[in-house]
Fold this sequence. Notes:
Elements: E1 2-4, H1 9-12, H2 15-24, H3 29-40, E2 47-49, E3 52-53, H4 68-88, E4 96-100, E5 103-107, H5 111-128, E6 138-139, H6 144-150, E7 155-156, E8 159-160, E9 162-163, E10 166-169, E11 172-175, H7 182-203, H8 209-225, H9 235-248
Parallel strand pairs: 6-9
Antiparallel strand pairs: 1-5, 1-6, 2-3, 4-5, 7-8, 10-11
Amino acid sequence: MISFDYRKCFDLVSQEIVFAIAKRLGLDSRVLKGVKAAYSGAHMRFKVSENALGSEWQPTNGIKQGCPLSIILLNCLTHVWVSALAAETSAAADVECGVYADDASATSKNADGLREVASLTEEFANFTGQELSIDKCACTCNDETERNALQGQVQIGGKALKVVSQMELLGIVFDFFDPQSDDKNTKFQKAIQKLQIRADRGAKLPLPKTERAKVIATAAITALTYGQSVLSRYGDAIKKARNRITRSLGFTHTPPGAKK
């Protein structure tokens, strides 16, 4: 997996390029005309103090961060990146990519694929005027030996990307570590204990089952998931948590194969 961070992404978007791409992708000319007019007629001022504004100026580059239209325009731009990866990476690399606004990442079956992605992403950034924040870009894989072998192998602009064992995408933390790691295991077990305590408290609430379920979903389940990594591990612990929640709702649960 490889993730990319763009420096001042919205500010550096070329209006000329993104409007041309939007037209090429089939955006209705009437809509595009309105968007262009909104940008060409825009005048801005910086707030320099509580009661004072700076001189008026007209931006010639960038799109407005926070505007719903900007996400559409930025998606038009990143569509070029997605299309390039689909068309120009080798079949053996089996590259898949995902992008939301300026949060972009891709996966590959091998290190060669990650290098292809990095090279095409650098070319894309240069062509569109974007700037990659190399220090914040990273790559990883789910095996420690492969991660060690990956050190220094994936580069952008002659600088090697850091290899990490944890990666955050869209606010979700993906961890690649030994499931028996003491610190991770301890943290997870503490979360299980907190869930059990909250579920037991929720079971005592004088509420109908439906309302009690809402409280437990809010208080108990978040105790397990908040701050935790995305894993397919700790199966027994997850089952234990599920059983505790089931009992707190007033249901009985008999594990498969157990005596009733």
